[in-house]
Write a structure and sequence with these properties.
307 residues, alpha/beta, Quinone Oxidoreductase, Chain A, domain 1, 2 domains, seven-stranded mixed beta sheet, six-stranded parallel beta sheet, 23% strand
């Protein structure tokens, strides 16, 4: 099968087309013929080798861990899915490839009303957002400070939190402020004076903070505005989180991600979920997609089309 991989850590130039054996699903696995896959910050962080202590990868490595596509083979013991099912979810093998393996508990059927690009933009964003909101124990009527609110995880977290009755104050670049208001958040700008800008909206501070940026003083601001570290969770930089004494959530051991996907898809069914796709590129442009993701200020998700 055709895929994109890297055989050494480094800049985006290490990404190259390759041909790999077709993966065979083992017990409790399905093989997905990938239609689309999302690009996440984790992908370029792994590629550069900066997270080797927390997320070691075996080289050569195919990036990507979320996809939308069609089940084309099932392994022994799989009863929940059948060949021909259109699905979206998290993959166990790299998703920047024509085929990827997944566990039935980590994929759900794609609603026919959800396009292929949007389907690939949902899994990582929805699972991460639900995991972090649950970790923070947010209750109706509380206020959440959400950094990087216009990114892939951020846009999902805004909408899921608002649906739970949580007030959201979101940090983002100025050009994304109108967009965040449409999602139901109250936007504020990054940078110097952040604490004061948030206090102008929430004089008593906020109840919890989800930091998807961990830059320009956002982690310190989260501590100041929540009054401590107990209800702050970071997802971008484990070392920075440790320095500030806040929780870092970089993944999950949960084997059934379907409830998280269902919560997001319920908003889609209600017609209120927006899954912004920043840009759609062919798989051959994976290197450019990584470079764009690394530059930041992406609204929503970059999606690669595999077939």
């Amino acid at each position: 099968m055709h895929a994109i991989a890297y055989d050494r850590h480094g800049p985006a130039e290490v990404l190259a087309p390759t041909t790999l054996p077709l993966p065979e699903p083992g017990p409790g696995q399905v093989r997905v013929a990938v239609r689309t896959t999302g690009v996440n910050p984790l992908d370029h962080k792994l590629r550069r080798g900066g997270l080797a202590e927390f997320f070691p990868v075996t080289l050569p490595h195919v990036p990507g861990n979320e996809a939308a596509g069609v089940v084309d083979a099932v392994g022994p013991g799989v009863t929940e899915l059948s060949v021909g099912d259109e699905v979206l979810g998290r993959t166990e093998t790299g998703s920047c490839a024509e085929y990827a393996l997944a566990r039935p508990g980590c994929v759900v059927r794609r609603p026919v009303t959800l396009g292929w690009a949007e389907a690939a933009a949902l899994p990582v964003a929805a699972e991460t957002a639900v995991r972090c909101l649950d970790h923070l124990g947010l209750r109706e009527g509380e206020t959440l400070l959400l950094h990087a609110a216009a990114g892939g995880v951020g846009t999902a977290a805004v909408q899921l939190a608002v649906a739970r009755g949580v007030r959201v104050i979101g940090t983002a670049s100025e050009h994304n402020h109108a967009f965040l208001r449409e999602l139901g958040a109250e936007p504020v700008a990054y940078g110097d004076g952040l604490v004061e800008r948030v206090r102008a909206l929430a004089p008593d501070g906020v109840d919890a903070a989800l930091d998807g940026a961990q830059q320009q003083g956002s982690t310190a601001a989260s501590r100041a505005l929540t009054g401590g570290t107990e209800r702050v969770v970071a997802i971008a930089d484990a070392a920075d989180a440790a320095r500030h004494g806040v929780a870092f959530s970089g993944g999950t051991d949960v084997t059934d991600l379907r409830p998280a996907f269902a919560e997001a898809l319920a908003l889609h069914t209600a017609g209120t979920l927006r899954l912004p796709v920043h840009r759609i590129r062919p798989l051959a442009e994976t290197r450019h997609a990584h470079e764009e993701s690394e530059r930041g200020h992406v609204r929503g998700k970059i999606v690669l089309v595999v077939r």
